[in-house]
Amino acid sequence: RKEVEQDPGPFNVPEGATVAFNCTYSNSASQSFFWYRQDCRKEPKLLMSVYSSGNEDGRFTAQLNRASQYISLLIRDSKLSDSATYLCVVNTGKLIFGQGTTLQVKP
Amino acid sequence: DADVTQTPRNRITKTGKRIMLECSQTKGHDRMYWYRQDPGLGLRLIYYSFDVKDINKGEISDGYSVSRQAQAKFSLSLESAIPNQTALYFCATSDPRTGGNNQPQHFGDGTRLSIL
Description:
The structure holds two protein chains of two kinds.
Chain A: E1 4-6, E2 11-14, E3 19-25, E4 32-38, E5 45-50, E6 55-57, E7 60-65, E8 70-75, E9 84-91, E10 95-97, E11 101-106
Parallel strand pairs in A: 2-11
Antiparallel strand pairs in A: 1-3, 3-8, 4-5, 4-9, 6-7, 7-8, 9-10, 9-11
Chain B: E1 4-7, E2 10-13, E3 19-25, E4 31-37, E5 44-49, E6 56-57, E7 64-70, E8 73-78, E9 87-94, E10 106-107, E11 111-115
């Protein structure tokens, strides 16, 4: 079993849609959690950290469920520019990256 | 100017050659990392360094070596390249002084390496 698992997608959604990604992790001692965004053939960039209380940044909401060991990312009012691969990242003492979930937002 | 710079950006070479990938940073971060990314797989950690001359193996260090002679530079070497080392390689940095274990990592633009 992979340490961090994501549905690779792709998720194809129309502009304006709300879309949610989940990610599960296996190490219950994981310390911190992140979502990164990666555009095609580009470097990953930090989108947001994920806190136990949940956190929101504009159209993006991240949540953590430690009991069930999953993390979610919700994107509201999707834009064409949101098309990318979203990487779930778990810190176990070092960063473990999921394989990513690809989002395609269509006009 | 990029904060984390990788050279070369692209490299095609033959099996058995020795390859060096360079990473330099202007962020003043102590911690540096080398990852590789393959289609369908997440980024996998090759080596990391928390300070000058500090070297630690990651998940997939076999066939690779690194050097950290200065805070700003972290180089990755493939001693004798083989085709399954064809991948996209990323260097990253982080600063433990900001956020402790919640520190994000900052990535270079990547090096696309092809071994024929």
